[in-house]
Specification:
With 248 residues, the protein is α+β, with helices and mostly antiparallel strands. It has a domain at 81-124. It has a two-stranded antiparallel ribbon with strand order 1-2. It has helices at residues 2-29, 44-54, 56-76, 128-199, 205-240, and strands at 83-101, 106-124.
């Protein structure tokens, strides 16, 4: 009876040790990521709006719209260059020299006077080309404004598509990272068990080496998953202009 009790106690102790090893290993592996099972990022629409707001290319397109609208406004009043008011003012000394001859004698006279001369007028030119081409010039300016607006909208559409792809890729890499973390935790537990059996002479060297190589490969995949997740997350944060929080 005492032998049965000892066997049961020994088996219970072994299971307790294995459970403790697995728990410790899992905690060590998941230290690099939040301990909660769920990540909560900003909504996709919030990220898209922030990226569009911070995009230098979108700002450039919006400024270009303003340039084209100013050009259109200038074309609408371009005709006024052919109509205007002109005035001149002249101030100075006026010298007059006069001679008089009656056939017998002659006389000469020089007079100097200070005068102000001015002129004022209105002019109107009528270029045939401007008259015939005015409608086309305005139409061209309107088309350029529309073109600039469509280019700005196209730029926003491209940004939306890029952010959607990157956002979904980030979620995928987050899930892959969680899977890799769990696999690594399990692999380390298995390695510790095999290592203990190897020391007790139960497992051959070849098997121990095989398990060690498998664990190393799994750890490499885990590190790669961390790098890929952080890279896409940082890129989105840089585009959006703020850091994504990871909360419950």
């Amino acid at each position: 009876m005492s032998k049965i009790v000892k066997v049961i106690f020994t088996i219970s102790l072994i299971f307790f040790q294995l459970s403790s090893i697995k728990a410790q290993t899992t905690d060590n592996v998941t230290d690099t990521i939040p301990k909660n099972n769920k990540f909560q990022f900003p909504s996709l629409e919030a990220v898209i709006d922030s990226v569009i707001k911070n995009s230098g290319m979108v700002k450039f397109r919006n400024k270009h719209i303003g340039v084209m609208e100013s050009t259109l406004a200038s074309e609408r009043i371009y005709w006024t260059r052919n109509f205007g008011i002109q005035g001149d003012v002249l101030y100075g000394n006026l010298n007059n020299f006069a001679t008089n001859s009656d056939g017998v004698s002659s006389t000469a006279a020089l007079t100097t006077s200070r005068q102000v001369n001015y002129s004022f007028g209105v002019y109107l030119k009528f270029p045939i080309f401007d008259f015939l081409n005015r409608k086309n010039q305005i139409k061209l300016a309107e088309l350029e404004v529309d073109e600039a607006k469509h280019m700005a909208e196209f730029q926003k559409q491209e940004i939306r598509q890029t952010v959607i792809r990157m956002y979904q890729d980030m979620l995928l890499k987050r899930n892959v990272l969680k899977i890799r973390a769990k696999s690594l935790a399990d692999a380390k537990v298995n390695k510790q068990m095999v290592e203990k059996e190897f020391r007790n002479g139960v497992v051959a060297v070849s098997e121990y080496v095989r398990i060690t190589n498998i664990t190393s490969n799994i750890e490499a995949e885990y590190e790669k998953a961390i790098s890929e997740f952080i890279t896409v997350k940082k890129m989105l944060e840089d585009m959006a202009g703020f850091v994504f929080g990871l909360t419950n």
